[in-house]
Amino acid sequence: MARNVSTRRKIVVTVVAWTIGILIFFPILWTFLTSFKTEAEAIASPPSLFFFDWTTENYHEVQSRSNYFLHFMNSVVVSFGSTLIGLIIAIPSAWAMAFSPTKRTKDVLMWMLSTKMMPSVGVLVPMYLLFRNTGLLDTRTGLVIVLTLINLPIIIWMLYTYFKEIPGEILEAARMDGASLSNEIIYVLTPMAIPGIASTLLLNIILAWNEAFWTLNLSAAKAAPLTAFIASYSSPEGLFYAKLSAASTMAIAPILILGWFSQKQLVRGLTFGAVK
Amino acid sequence: MNLRTFLLGTCSAVALAGLAQAETLTIATVNNGDMIRMQKLTDDFTSKNPDITLEWVTLEENVLRQRVTTDIATKGGQYDIMTIGTYEVPIWAKQGWLLPLDNLGADYDVDDLLPAIRSGLTIDGKLYAAPFYGESSMVMYRKDLFEKAGLTMPDAPTWDFIADAARKITDKSNEVYGICLRGKAGWGENMAFLTATANAFGARWFDENWKPQFDQPEWKYALDFYVKLMNDAGPPGASSNGFNENLSLFQTGKCGMWIDATVAASFVTNPKESTVADKVGFALAPDTGLGKRGNWLWAWNLAIPAGSQKVAAAEKFIAWATGKDYLKLVADKEGWANVPPGTRTSLYANPEYQKAAPFAKMTLDSINAADPKNPSVKPVPYVGVQFVAIPEFQGLGTAVGQQFSAALAGQMSVDDALASAQKLTEREMTKAGYIK
Fold first, then answer.
1. Are residues B120 and B146 in the same domain?
2. Of A220, A234, A237, the CB nearest to B261
3. Where in the cell is it found (chain B) (predicted)?
4. Could you list the residue range(s) of the whole structural domain that residue B182 is in?
5. Does domain A66-232 correspond to CATH entry 1.20.1290.10?
């Protein structure tokens, strides 16, 4: 039921929302602006917001120093690959837990989540040895595997929550009509859960894109994604803020654009089931 | 076998042989100006060695350290050449993780390497890493501010003079602070500076039996001096300042003096980056009359991990990158001021270099004055001026650095910080088996 909202309240809410929005967006804007400054202007105090000599020198420098395209392709393969494989495993698992739960389903879910609670560095050496022995060090395949495993609990949890919102009777009706298990999942459940699956997909691509511990530690020259590209522009000795900002802007631009175009899906998926 | 099959087979065999000969060296390196310059100049190496191709992994110092340590400790074999610091070389060489560099070629002239730097990389008479660039620490100061205050900086100042001058120059209303020093917690941050400085005050990390010495009067004197000086004449928020923060402050004209790595000299005198480029003077790191100056010694070096399959190619590359001809190559392409400093005696004898780098003599004197084997006034059981070359030091140095940073920020007293440093160091050293 619609409520009457006073104009004053609307203004307050709008102002608060914009303030929060700008606060969240400001670091990205600042990075973007800094990437067009010279190193001297980047550290100038007080800093100038828009009125400085705009230069694209940092982008030229980054282009000439690094193979951006190689890192970009690695990021694409690793984040999309790990998310898609994750979804293929997670959809049946979430289906099982949502529609035919057993006594231990809750425990299994909690156990899966608990794997996220361990600090990654705690298993760095065993993982490194496993990767070394299987020849997976510095390969895209290795990174896809590790990111799939890392994000699988989140994918399953998100899908489980969405699937729970779907009435089991619809699936039952499909079964009555003679649908097999795979048909039920592919033709009935999946289309109904599309907003949820889409937002899970997007969120996990973003998480995998930004994952900077394993991708840095398990890659060297060949499979290094954009996280390694950024890490090569920070330095404890010497000025690097403008070049680092240019590298960061180049690294986040693709995922920012993807997020921009899919924000409708993302918001719909994330608030799915919130109003019932 | 007809002719076509024969030709095809021969071609494949030749191609395979070619593939087998072309070696790819993967080089892990740190992101600093000199290393980046080297990457750009590698065409010179590959044109002389067409059978070797190079792949670079450039990382920020801390990420690089974690990355290469994991790889070498697990014998991962991801890198054929690693860039490591003077802290790692003695530890890794003793572990048998590095190969001695015995075959750098007849014209490498190993005796030309600066003795102080070379000694830090030599274990049991063998060179385990070749220095690419070396540095010490020194005082950088603003000549104009000193003149205005009627002060003259001696070539070899004392800490009392520095403190007095810093307080006189400070003009907080105009955001000019007499002295900028590191305060950010970390073994390579504030503890690099404080460990080196403490040497000049007669303090040391451990006595000959590895007993921590933070409860001794020398440390109290040193830390008290530092905290009081920074409170009176340092910039606000100094407890979060590291090299880059102080560099920014100095370059924007907010520091009267800055004591830090000699490599900073080329940044603060670069008119493209610095607003005070033509007003900077240099002096040796200060002392307290006890015979030691608080100037450290650091070098970034190239080393070959043990178990490497491409030793001959790696040695060729290291000989190229750290040899005399490389210095000439950089000078020809980018000018003498951009030559990596601090590794070779011949560079400092070169009049062209002396002309291009006004800080050359001070850098050489600072490096020569550092003695990693006898860093402090009293004897110590360890090697290292601004660090203690034991594997535990990274963790210990950072933990102690946090206490000292808190003392600088006023969150705890100097006495409490030292007591807590003493306690935690004793605990760690007992656990590690140094203290029986």
1. no
2. A237
3. Periplasm
4. 137-296+373-431
5. no
- Mean pLDDT over B82-105 rounds to 93
pLDDT by residue (tens digit) across A238-254? 778 889 999 999 999 99
User: A122 at the B interface (CB within 8 A)?
Assistant: no
Q: Output the domain CATH number for residue B188.
A: 3.40.190.10
Q: Are residues B211 and B98 in the same domain?
A: no
Residue at A229: amino acid letter: F
Q: Which neighbouring-strand residues pair with B126?
A: B123
Where does the pLDDT of residue B386 fall: very low under 50, low under 70, confident under 90, or very high at 90 and above? very high
CA distance A18 to chain B (A): 31
Of B26, B63, B273, the CB nearest to A231: B63
ipTM surpassing 0.85: no
Residues, chain B, total? 436
**How big is chain A, counted in residues?**
276
**Same domain, yes or no: B41 and B113:** yes
d(C-alpha A51, C-alpha A64), whole Å: 27
Domain boundaries, chain A: 66-232
Cβ distance A238 to B244 less than 8 Å, yes or no, reads yes
- List of chain A residues whose C-beta atoms are within 8 Å of the C-beta of residue B30: 235
Mind listing the pLDDT tens digit for each residue in A113-135? 888 888 988 899 999 999 999 99
Contact assignment for B61 to A233 by CB distance below 8 Å: no
When divided into structural domains, chain B yields a total of 2
Q: Residue A237 to residues A233, B161, B196: CA-CA distances in angstroms? A: 11, 28, 18
| Strands B126-127, B122-123: pairing kind | antiparallel
Q: Are residues B413 and B284 in the same domain?
A: yes
The answer to whether residues B181 and B277 belong to one domain is yes
- Cα A34 to the chain's mean position, in Å? 24
* Dihedral over alpha carbons B188, B194, B196, B200 (to 10 degrees): 180
Does B285 lie in the same domain as B220? yes
Structure tokens at A60: 């030229």
Check whether residue B162 and residue B261 sit in a common domain. yes
